[in-house]
Amino acid sequence: MSGMPARALAAAATVVVCAGVGAALGLAIGAPTAAAIVAAAAGAAALAAWDAARGQALMDWLRGPQAGPAPREAGWWGEMAYRIERALRLRDTAIEQEGQRLRDFLEGIEASPNGVLLLDGSDQIEWCNSTAAEHLQLDPERDRGQRITNLVRAPVFVAYLQAGRFDDSVAFPAPNGRATLSAVVRRYGDGMKLVLSQDITERERAEAMRRDFVANVSHEIRTPLTVLAGFIETLAQLPLTEVERQRVMSLMTQQTDRMQSLVGDLLTLAQLEGSPRPPVDRWLSVPELLQRVQADGLALSGGRHTLEFTGGDDAEIAGSDTELLSALGNLVNNAVRYTPAGGRINVAWRWRDDGGAEIAVTDTGPGIAREHLPRLTERFYRVDGSRSRETGGTGLGLSIVKHVVQRHGGEIDITSEVGKGSTFKLALPALRLRRHVAAIPAPALPA
Ligand code: ADP
Q1: Gap from CA of 283 to ligand 1 centroid (Å)
Q2: Which residues are registered as beta bridge partners of 417?
Q3: For the whole model, what pTM was predicted?
Q4: How confident is the model at residue 180 (pLDDT cuts 50, 70, 90)?
Q5: Is residue 135 part of a domain?
Q6: Fewest 10 Å CB contacts: which of 59, 82, 281, 360?
Q7: Three-class SS of residue 438?
Q8: What is the residue with the minimal CA distance to atom 18 of ligand 1?
Q9: Is 43 helix (H, G, I), strand (E, B) or coil?
């Protein structure tokens, strides 16, 4: 039995028992009825007071922060306290679980590489992740509730937000002035907006470089083609003497050679960019590499320069022989092409204390002014365009050298003084180098 019937029965039983005890005691004084009534009333009052005290204990607990356990009473009040406490605990757990879900969710958005910004119906900031804060120079706490267009004032962005047509993204300069951002807006909920931002500086730069590159290549190819077209026209229309014809043919050959070198260098660059790094376990003999570079250099110089190769006799390098030959060949080729007859070209290998090494190609040529040095390895960058083209240069040599040396874990360093000469130094890491151990001669057998 439980609930109200049990409580009513227990109360009635208490009153009856009290009345019975009162009647028994009342017999002694000759007034059993009166004593029974008084005792029953006293019993009912005591019962009510006890019940009220138990109810008050539960009320006190409910009015407080419910930090400790609910009053542990037996019976009706006890069960009520237990049920209230359980309902509260279940609610607390559900709230805690929801809170945790929200925290996980926000952490997930926080980890996004994109900036995420939530705006209310009046374009006021509700929340943003730290990437959006960094992109748009916002303070996630301080700027909450601020209208976004008061803080991000780039006119293109403001116009985009106000126009309300969000099919495409919009590109605009970042508030710090150092980057280009792209933003796209999606509507959600009741007039709310989700703004996703992205830093597209690198993408824009790569795109601009690609455009420049295509324009440069087209220009480089168009010039010899125009010259060739002119010669073909001349050959077709004018009766030339044999001497003139020979001259035209030789000039045409020069132009086709130029285009061939250009296409060759472009293919080399494309290959360098599109292939995996050279192997670290394919060991090449440095003296053999240098000998081949020396032979090509001597042939190109045709005795007009003194070429000197020193060091590296005991060295081996792990990498690609075609790439390394191309890099060293380009440096010696440049030194020969730019150094006037009678000049000296020195190629020196030097071990460093950290196990790495340097190959330095030094010439006594015209030298390069300081302001050009940082840009020399850019594609098609030339200090003296006509000298480069006259001597068969494509403007791509040093960018090939830089690529090759970086693919081998090293770097290029250029020093030069106008009027004195230049040094192009390739630094190579210890990881790709080892000293060749000469075979130990077998001990002579006793006769
Ligand atoms: P190019 O095919 O024009 O030689 P590179 O990329 O090899 O192209 O070199 C870029 C520019 O650097 C050259 O046009 C030239 O002006 C300059 N340069 C390279 N090597 C030397 C050098 N040894 N002495 C002087 N100038 C050099």
Answers
A1: 30
A2: 421
A3: 0.70
A4: very high
A5: yes
A6: 281
A7: coil
A8: 334
A9: helix
